[in-house]
Amino acid sequence: MRIMKILFKNRRILFLSFNKNNYSTAPKYLATLRIGEKEYRTDEYTNITPKILSYLNRNLHLKKDNPLSLVRQRIVNYFYSSFTHGGNPIFSVYDNVSPVVSTKQNFDDLLIPEDHPSRAKSDCYYINSTTLLRAHMTAHQSELLRAGLDNFLMIGDVYRRDEIDSTHFPVFHQIDAVRSQRKEQLFENHPDLDIFEPSFDRTNPHAYTNSISNPIKQSCHTLEATKLMEAQLKNHLIGMVRVLFGEDIKYRWVDAYFPFTHPSWELEIYYEKNWMETLGCGIVRNEILANAGPNNTIAYAFGIGLERLAMALYKIPDIRLVWSTDSGFLAQFQNKNANANIVYKPVSIYPQCTNDLSFWLPPTTTIDTFTNNDFYDLVRDIGGDIIEQVKLKDKFIHPKTKKHSLCYSIVYRHLERTLTQAEVNKIHKEIEDAATKAFNIVVR
Ligand code: PHE
């Protein structure tokens, strides 16, 4: 395995920008950041941390004794065996593409507007203002279409800044797919039907404003083509969920919105008395296809998160466990047929320790403008994987001084041993000190 190197040209700068006590992002002119073979300039967007960079190249989805890899194999097998041409699978699989992408790949190519909240610095890990760790596998859709592919799966690690609890982790894994068809494939038995409305000139798609104001279809597509694609998409995905969870799995479709598909849906399955969102999907916006090349196809796309599926299938109670290198965990998934019925047995449950942290915000920040995700990243950077959860417990504005205060509960639990209170207190104090310096707060 290639070792990830985080090197700064100037060592002093490494210390300045990523030292625990000086957490804020590196000013533009200070540093460049090396990831693997490449060097990137940093700027006011840079918010990636060494902790996050340490997850690159772990490739859990390709490790054969990892539960995520078992789920990946089952889904890939389903697509390989369900779609063949002359005995060969028609889907090609891309599961080893670097997670470092451009904002063009992650957003622009997918028609995600300039002001869309998913671009916010508080939600993504930026290397600089034009480069980030992909926030979804859909980031590779356009380049693969441009390369001439029509049916493909993109599998890998994606990065999002988020809250901390048993189901969220800043890195998770997705399988994304595109399936495209030409008129002759889609309407094999109905040569009189077409993919595009007569008013749409597919040889000059840019002269046509493709509206998505009709909830049923894009204006360039015929109703027949949209409905047939919708039926296929839904059948294929239900087929997949049945392969994973059994024939009797209860599910429902929910209308959704994604900038890159229209119409769009989410699939929820009924699992342990709750509706659980498993995937997003829809008909690819024709602008994306036309910009990337093909002007004679209609395509569907979807994206599935692997962690949730694996946690449900194998009854894994905490998302951090998929990162475990503990043999007690991995042995339960080792040398297993991908279809084996595995129920995770906790090696042992170690106690939690909860410490609160209350502080006054500086006069320039309010309880509404304080970026929770900045705080979560700082806690995770210092506490590492023993941080089980960070909860915002209380917000308070002093009636007289009008000073704003926040209180977070930090839950500590080691997955493999018991933590002592003294040990936790020491880390908690380090978090207090680092937060005091980084956010200019005053601990209460
Ligand atoms: N990229 C979307 C997400 O991460 C999922 C998606 C993929 C939805 C493809 C529609 C089509 O949530």
Most strands sheet = 7 strands, mixed
**Into how many domains do the coordinates divide?**
2
CATH topology of the largest domain: BirA Bifunctional Protein, domain 2
Poorly predicted spans: 1-29
User: What is the second-level CATH architecture of the largest domain?
Assistant: 2-Layer Sandwich
Mean pLDDT: 91
The secondary-structure class comes to alpha+beta
- Rounded to an integer in angstroms, the radius of gyration calculated over CA atoms is 24 Å
CATH homologous superfamily descriptor of the largest domain: Bira Bifunctional Protein, Domain 2
Q: How large is the count of helical segments?
A: 12
- The strand line-up of the biggest sheet is 6-10-11-15-14-13-12
Number of strands: 19
Dominant shape = globular
**Oligomeric form of this entry?**
single chain
How far apart the termini lie comes to 46 Å
| Helical content class | 25-40%
CATH class of the largest domain: Alpha Beta
Strand content: 25-35%
Bound molecules: phenylalanine
How would you concisely characterize the structure shown here?
The chain is of the alpha+beta class.
